[in-house]
TrEMBL record:
Source organism of this protein record: Acetobacter garciniae
Protein name per its UniProtKB record: SIMPL domain-containing protein
Superkingdom of the organism of origin: Bacteria
Record-linked InterPro entries: 26kDa_periplasmic_antigen (IPR052022), SIMPL/DUF541 (IPR007497)
One of the GO BP terms on file: DNA damage response
Cross-referenced Pfam families: SIMPL
Amino acid sequence: MRAVWGVRRSARPRMRRSSAIRNNELMFQTRPLSKRFFTFTLMAPMLLAGAHAGLAHAQTAPATTKLEISAQGSVEAPPDRLTATFRAQAQDKNVATAQQAVNAQIHQATEQASKAEGVSSAVLVYGVSETRPDKNTTLWTARQVFTLTAANGKTLLPLAGQLQGNGLILEQLDWSLSPAQRQTLFLQAEKNAIADLKKQAEAMAASLGLHVLRFEHVSVSEENSPRPMPVMFMAARAADGPATPPSSTAETQTVRAGATATVLLAP
């Protein structure tokens, strides 16, 4: 008899190993002939790539210096609006009589203003007060504010003289800029302020041996502009005869803008 020698194979299932690249990930799969399998994903290459990119950015970013500067811009222009402010006032022992007198003055003033071309009027604050000069006397004072507005004094000033002759008190004449004109001038003042900021930034950067990288932050605001002193007048009396129109010189108006900025400088 011959003896047969051999190797007995294990009953365990054979394993298959395969690899594949999917979505930039190297994947190894080890699976038996059965339905179970395991997946291993190698993320190290992606993490290393991200770390290299961040390091490269840090190495290439230039060193910067922050510079804080401020500037002003201004524009001058003649005024385009004249405002005359009046006060109608009457005093009497009877409050109704005082109020009626003021009402009559204001009514007459608005009638005259409506006939003046290019002149607008406004009836404003009204008030009544009581005074006692002595124990036995009570006086009531009624008053109301009335304004005239025009682009110039050609029509307004003669009308103001007429109202003075009617007994209204001309408190002041005020030259100013209309809202539209002020906004136009402010935009130009802003441009002048920004131009000054740029000039300062370039000059300071050059003195430091640097150059302007960019403006990181800019803020612009309107600054208070000096107004001309209003011309004050005393009341004219109707009995004095024809009133001489008041006069007023249109003074130059100045609109100012202030600007601040944070500038980044680099070698």
